[in-house]
Automatic annotation (TrEMBL):
NCBIfam families in alphabetical order: poly_P_kin, PRK05443.1-1, PRK05443.2-2
Organism of origin: Pontibacter chinhatensis
Stated name of the protein: Polyphosphate kinase
Annotated Polyphosphate kinase middle domain residues: 131-315
Coiled-coil region: none
The enzyme's E.C. designation: 2.7.4.1
GO cellular component, one term: polyphosphate kinase complex
Length: 704
């Protein structure tokens, strides 16, 4: 290999990039790989099928819908885009088709046979014996038939609106039983998943054989009862995904909540991004459905017999624990668990809690304590995605009711969580809290809390900074880090961030925090430039960067520059990665890998060698243009050596993982000398080992 200094650096258009959309699809394929992994418990593999399907639904509602919107731009405007949207869409649809075919194959050839091997039978309408037929008929008459409202598709031009993300059966019927009936008729039925409470029906167990049916197939079997004037039927599923983009002005005003609520209703009626259909659907039935819905051939996407596999999240509990992940009881924090007061403990030292391995209860305790402590004068928090029954939000309401000055920044533009956020915003306003609805032209994505306490006439600040949301539900499945600190270097600057939310002035000075869009990009560039400078001096230079997504072109160019200077770069990227590693003369010093496993890797960690005086930042932000330019994000340093050591150990485990780690090309990392390390399990064992002998090591079992 040529000396790096002798090579002419490549710049601009010469630099390689991976298409963002195709990179996201590659990530979702890694989810599908988990469903194919025979080492993953069977019912967990089914969950990964559901995650894959749910992800793809959202992708069509957001990204594909955006591409279609770009295609409709005027040619002159479209020419300014970096990539031709029609070409990208064609590639996307081709790759989606490939993945959908593999998804169907995995379900038919792997999941279903494995279920049968464990005496679980997913029956269709053709598999029933006489006893089951009678049971299904009775069940249909008593439970499902009252929920169904057939819509006849006649020859008139009546318009039929298909609701977003809802499965329908298109029905063709022929062979009339009466002479005055038309030879053929067509109808549509909504599958009543929500009204029924589940997509599945459990049939009686016989001789330890368990039987389950889609309610789709129960309906198919009972079509003669619904349409008694015909003898022959074909029923095929369709589902529409509608554009989820919010057409609202990016401004904060008194009417923003009303705008969001209006846009939520608009989303339900947005134009279709795709119509997923069963490829076995007769053409005349498909034509009839298209004519009545106004959906064109451009929106058609081949699927399979069943849609909305996300409903497999609700696959019946069949009481076979060996087919699920072995429970990992949530660990206590070895120090915080012993402290009667979280605030008093924070005054003495910093604490770091690692979710989902350790309990989220310490966050709840912190805000509950702040709400009730008479010396606490003010409580502030940013709410991005809160749980529907959020205990954190309830504690903030309690603090406001107790006379504290409560300031809550509620991000109403947190896509798909707007309704929950609107609900809690109303509750907080009613309690007297100062509710701030985001920042003009920005989305507030930082995860911050600030508590002010009057201690002997002096005001003392306590801060909570995290990579994850204030969400008790996702804290059980998202892998995040959270810092509890009273370090004045940090709390003073967290206070400045909340001042920014109030006065919107960007002249704030930050020496310790990196805050987007004020100084985060510049701060990260400065840290990378320092490594480049050290490499050119012949000093050791390296970076370990962990994030969910790497898409920003300027940061990618900076990493290419660092690689060309000889900086060793290890990237841990779970999702989108537009950087192409291993390109000679550009990125041969860059290695990219990512972990998809039991928990969702969600923490962002940025580590810079700094000539032996390592600098580590924990962050809410990825290196995407939207995070660095159009969101309020915070990256915070760790100063306490034992906390730095904890995160470094966890990152090292992830770099050593050769069980669940994959490259950007989705190949499993298999070194010549396997370590057989599975980072998430090794992390649990490591944190379990921090609990002193004799202490209670765990709380409730981890539910997923």
């Amino acid at each position: 290999m040529k000396d790096q200094k002798e090579q002419k650096p490549k710049t601009g258009a010469d630099l390689p990039y991976i298409n963002r959309e195709l990179s996201w699809l590659a990530f979702n394929y890694r989810v599908l790989q988990e469903a194919m992994d025979k080492n993953v418990p069977l019912l967990e593999r089914i969950k990964f099928m559901a995650i894959f399907s749910s992800n793809l639904d959202e992708y069509f509602k957001v990204r594909v819908a955006t591409l279609k919107r770009l295609i409709k731009l005027k040619p002159k405007t479209r020419s300014k885009l970096e990539e031709e949207p029609q070409e990208t869409l064609d590639q996307v649809l081709q790759e989606v088709h490939r993945q959908q075919e593999e998804f169907g194959r995995v379900f038919r050839e792997e999941i279903l046979p494995d279920l049968r091997r464990h005496h679980i039978h997913l029956l269709t309408e053709h598999d029933l014996n006489k006893e089951q037929e009678a049971w299904v008929q009775d069940y249909f008459e008593e439970t499902l038939e009252p929920l169904l409202l057939p819509i006849i598709l006649d020859e008139t031009e009546t318009h039929l609106f298909l609701r977003d993300q809802t499965v329908y059966l298109g029905v063709k019927m022929w062979d009339p039983a009466e002479a005055d009936c038309k030879p053929e008729r067509y109808a549509m039925l909504e599958i009543p998943t929500k009204k029924h409470g589940s997509r599945f029906v459990k049939l009686p167990t016989v001789d330890e054989q368990r039987y389950v049916m889609f309610i789709d197939d129960v309906i198919r079997f009972c079509l003669p009862r619904l349409f008694p004037k015909y003898k022959s039927f074909a029923a095929h599923a369709v589902k529409v995904s509608r554009d989820a983009e919010l057409d609202i002005e990016e401004e904060v005003s008194g009417s923003l909540m009303a705008k969001i609520q209006k846009s939520l209703k608009k989303r339900e009626t947005g134009y279709p991004a795709r119509l997923l259909y069963d490829p076995q659907t007769p053409q005349d039935l498909l034509d009839r459905m298209m004519a009545h819905t106004g959906i064109t051939a451009e929106e058609l996407v081949e699927g399979s017999k069943y849609h909305n596999f996300r409903d497999f999240f609700g696959f019946p509990d069949i009481n076979l624990p060996d087919l699920k992940y072995k429970p990992q009881p949530t660990l206590i924090h070895p120090q915080l668990e012993q402290e009667p007061s979280i605030l008093a403990a924070m005054k003495e030292r910093d604490y770091l809690v690692h979710y989902p391995y350790q309990s989220f209860d310490y966050v709840l305790r912190l805000f509950e304590e702040a709400a009730q402590d008479p010396k606490v004068t003010a409580v502030s928090a940013t709410l991005y995605r809160v749980a529907d029954k959020s205990k954190v939000a309830k504690a903030l309401v309690k603090a406001a009711n107790n006379g504290k000055l409560v300031t809550v920044v509620v991000e109403l533009k947190a896509r798909f969580d707007e309704e929950s956020n609107i609900y809690w915003a109303g509750k907080l306003q009613k309690a007297g809290a100062n509710v701030i609805f985001g920042v003009s032209d920005l989305k507030v994505h930082s995860k911050l809390g600030l508590i002010t306490r009057n201690e002997g006439g002096k005001l003392m600040n306590y801060a909570y900074l995290s990579t994850g949301n204030y969400n008790e539900t996702t804290s059980k499945i998202y892998a995040d880090h959270a810092l509890f600190t009273a370090d004045k270097r940090l709390t003073k600057e967290v206070e400045q961030v909340f001042n920014f939310f109030i006065d919107r002035q960007t002249d704030k000075k930050f020496e310790h925090l990196l805050v987007a869009p004020i100084n985060m990009r510049q701060g990260f560039v400065k840290l990378v430039d320092r490594e480049i400078k050290n490499a050119k001096k012949g000093l050791p230079a390296s970076m370990i960067l962990k994030m969910n997504a790497l898409q920003d072109a300027r940061m990618i160019r900076k990493l290419y520059e660092a690689s060309q200077a000889g900086v060793k770069i290890q990237l841990l990227v779970r999702g989108i990665c537009c950087l192409m590693p291993g390109v000679e003369g550009v990125s041969e010093n860059i290695e990219v890998r990512g972990i998809v496993d039991r928990y969702l890797e969600h923490a962002r960690v940025y580590i810079f060698h700094n000539n032996g005086e390592e600098k580590m930042y924990i962050a809410s932000a990825d290196w995407m243009t939207r995070n660095l330019n159009r969101r309020v994000e915070v990256a915070f340093p760790l100063y306490q050596p034992d906390l730095v050591e904890q995160v470094r150990h966890i990152i090292d485990l992830q770099l050593q993982d050769d069980t669940k780690t994959r490259t950007v090309g989705n190949s499993y990392v298999k070194p010549d000398e396997p370590t057989n390390i599975r980072a998430q399990y090794a992390t649990y064992d490591y944190l379990h080992g921090l609990v002193p002998s004799g202490a209670t090591a765990a709380c409730q079992p981890q539910e997923e």
